[in-house]
Here is the input.
Amino acid sequence: MTFLIDAQLPRRLAYWLRQAGYEAVHTLDLPNGNRTQDNQINTLSLKKQWIVVSKDSDFVDSFLIQGKPYKLLLLATGNIKNIELEQLFFNYFDEIASLFESHRFIELNRTMIIVHQ
Here is the structure.
């Protein structure tokens, strides 16, 4: 399972995922860095079967209309401090990883995980 962390999220999420035994890439690690366009992220995601982690609702639209990216974790927390976002992510991550074995679109808000069919 490989995760692609979108530009508006802290790079520390990618570091933490790697330490937890997952493969993870932040957009800063891509050739165009944080300037990588959503369509390029979707193409990479499909080609390499990467799970996109983003706060960007444009990925939801793309997923629902075009089936891109390959899989999507939407962090729907609104404005939140990075440390709070990271703690929320870490608290729920084992369950999220397990859900991605059989689901393609998962949303995490401040209080729960929502699995979209």
